[in-house]
Amino acid sequence: xxxxxxxxxxxxxxxxxxxxxxxxxxxxxxxxxxxxxxxxxxxxxxxxxxxxxxxxxxxxxxxxxxxxxxxxxxxxxxxxxxxxxxxxxxxxxxxxxxxxxxxxxxxxxxxxxxxxxxxxxxxxxxxxxxxxxxxxxxxxxxxxxxxxxxxxxxxxxxxxxxxxxxxxxxxxxxxxxxxxxxxxxxxxxxxxxxxxxxxxxxxxxxxxxxxxxxxxxxxxxxxxxxxxxxxxxxxxxxxxxxxxxxxxxxxxxxxxxxxxxxxxxxxxxxxxxxxxxxxxxxxxxxxxxxxxxxxxxxxxxxxxxxxxxxxxxxxxxxxxxxxxxxxxxxxxxxxxxxxxxxxxxxxxxxxxxxxxxxxxxxxxxxxxxxxxxxxxxxxxxxxxxxxxxxxxxxxxxxxxxxxxxxxxxxxxxxxxxxxxxxxxxxxxxxxxxxxxxxxxxxxxxxxxxxxxxxxxxxxxxxxxxxxxxxxxxxxxxxxxxxxxxxxxxxxxxxxxxxxxxxxxxxxxxxxxxxxxxxxxxxxxxxxxxxxxxxxxxxxxxxxxxxxxxxxxxxxxxxxxxxxxxxxxxxxxxxxxxxxxxxxxxxxxxxxxxxxxxxxxxxxxxxxxxxxxxxxxxxxxxxxxxxxxxxxxxxxxxxxxxxxxxxxxxxxxxxxxxxxxxxxxxxxxxxxxxxxxxxxxxxxxxxxxxxxxxxxxxxxxxxxxxxxxxxxxxxxxxxxxxxxxxxxx
Length: 728
Fold this sequence. Notes:
With 728 residues, the chain is mainly beta. The protein is built from five helices and 38 strands. It has a single domain, classed as Beta Barrel (Maltoporin, Chain A).
């Protein structure tokens, strides 16, 4: 976008905001504005959660009026939906209203907001994102509790909420990373007609005009009886990000349909299409040789190339069926299909000296075809044996991923020029060898098969959840770039399985206070050597992870307080100084987490948490006692809102996000400093000529601090975002 066009658009939007303010502020001061009508009005009294009303309950849970304090979870793996206080696991909830009010645009925004996650891989780099949970990097995600491949782009506008499972989840989701798992819950049809339109400009920076944005969200019943309901979300966004030279274009469409086949049966389908493209994607920084990783370069400048890009296009569909034929049995099934393609030209900045210069290498990767198939089938039985209440759950959940690529899927090049940290240098695009001209064939497959059996036993205030999962991991890897005239051949594969147990005890001290202890094991797929390593593509065999956790949860007034102590250990894998990816020793993380979400006062909302972590490498004579890279041992985050009593409808918003220092090298000879960023903004709700309107304004990273979010990526610069929303 030209600077003149950006300025013109800014003037138009600014005039629109000024007009809105002039017409809305005066009448608002004279009367208390009505809140935007909720998607679903909660019924008075305690809410009874059943397998057939989960979606309706979630639509009125963790709202702004409730201080974003959640009461329920959409699903705890095979255990299904549960109240948070009755769950012996650590799970965070970021609700739809919190996502809307913070103007969340991507998983980067979600992971910044979540009190216990540390983002280490920005979405504008391309696939896959990676986030630290309890110090362990994970890219494990699910959509409505069905597993995704980690390259899937998540369009936040289509989500009702995000649930972050902290810690081992082997019993709940089968083979997975030990840090945790992120579940994205899709928006479902509403009981009453609903329409919301949002327009805005997101990501305005010092040199950029931002990316214009429009989002329509529509839902409601189709027939008079309410047996059929729909939900449609449409998103369009195009323009600059807050990084100079970087542009974003994306679109999203989803359509959901619910069919109440009978009072005891619900069928649900959802289809979606997503397009995401970023030009000048964030570069990957690699420090080697004697280079010392010092102050991060300017975050508002692009250290990539304007002609580099990343594109992700995906189409998907899911279907679910819930049937409760009687008071004892409940049957649940689901299936998910996603097809995606992801071409890119990526930039890698290589630093091998301390003279202030670097070089660039480039990867030109063909689109290929990535297919995800995921599903589950569970049966629940609720019954009593004497004084004991049982909920026995058994079933099977599975996921399969496969990648098909041209046999000339990639080519490599380098740029020449004056590359130094004083100012970015934009070179002419080099000549790449042709890609995508040879036949396509299978590049890899990943398959997880999981059978589970568990029982929740309740005896008064005491609950015991015990179960076992048999996880089977199957992988096959084929030659990445075979010579001309040679087809791909199988390079490595394994097929291994294991039974992993889990046991939890939860005691309800009072209806508002619970304590728990949990032991859980999980099978984890072996790590794969990254691109750039001398043994790139080598996959290690699966390993067994273990976790102990004790904790407490309390609803104190209108605030949910959580406390958890944990000890997790797993196999340790790392890229050594000789550029070989290795597995040696164990990685053990001990820590404590404290979280708070809700209304501290009627006008004051708090959403945050603190983590103290002791991450160490053990059982290896050369690495014992060292800290794993990119893991902060201290983390504190808080997002807060304050509704001004003397200006009805006006809410001040802001947040502070702190991460402690972390090791940048395996041998711990280099540490990168901790950092803190802050956000400031406001939300204003009123009515204009009877039409409810909400204006949102936010400045993230208000000090425009440049920092390393990990040893490979620079964090985001200051960004200005604003939007207007209405419901009708």
